[in-house]
Amino acid sequence: MPSSGPDRPTPPGAGAILTLAAIRRARDLIDSRYAEPLDLDTVAREAGYSRYHFVRAFRAAYGESPGRYLTRRRIERAQDLLRSANLTVTEVCHLVGFSSLGSFSARFRELSGVSPSQFQREAHRRGPPPIRGASC
Question: Which of 50, 42, 63, 49 is closest to 19 using CA atoms?
Fold first, then answer.
């Protein structure tokens, strides 16, 4: 790839592409380690940005803050587990990275419109029986 320099100017849009690649690396980190305790500094460091610049760039790229994205990914995974595995709501809560059942239930209801236990009951009533003891 040609380098930029005095005789080779940086192509238009190159900075935006580099920013998007950096933000995507951070998003991939969130996606792969969603169940672990992740703090903003760790994720921003993956992108090579300060936490404040990272939050602005992430929101511009994905339309939501990194914290909101992480919460949404955890709830999506919780829905999968509640739908398909024979686990308690508390077990699912901890498997997806929440340390507080109250916070998990509040965020779950906020994003899905129902409580985790109601979601699980409805999913089991509609679909195939859950996989026994599966923690996926």
Answer: 49
Q: Are strands 131-132 and 85-86 parallel, antiparallel or unpaired?
A: parallel
Q: What are phi and psi of 132, to 5 degrees?
A: -65, 125
Instruction: Work out the angle at residue 66's Cα, subtended by the Cα atoms of residues 91 and 94, and round it to the nearest 5 degrees.
Output: 10
DSSP 39: -
Do 135 and 93 touch, CB atoms closer than 8 A?
A: no
Q: What single-letter amino acid sits at 10?
A: T
Q: How many CA atoms lie within 13 A of 10 on its CB side?
A: 7
Task: Give the pTM.
Answer: 0.81
C-alpha to C-alpha distances, 14 to 3, 11, 24, nearest whole angstrom: 12, 6, 15
pLDDT per position as a tens digit, 1-33: 444 445 655 444 445 566 889 999 999 999 999
Q: Which amino acid is at 89?
A: V
Tokens of 78: 């919780």
Encode burial over 121-133: b for 16+ CB neighbours within 10 A, e otherwise. Answer: eebeeeeeebeee
Residue 48 CA to residue 136 CA, distance in Å, equals 32
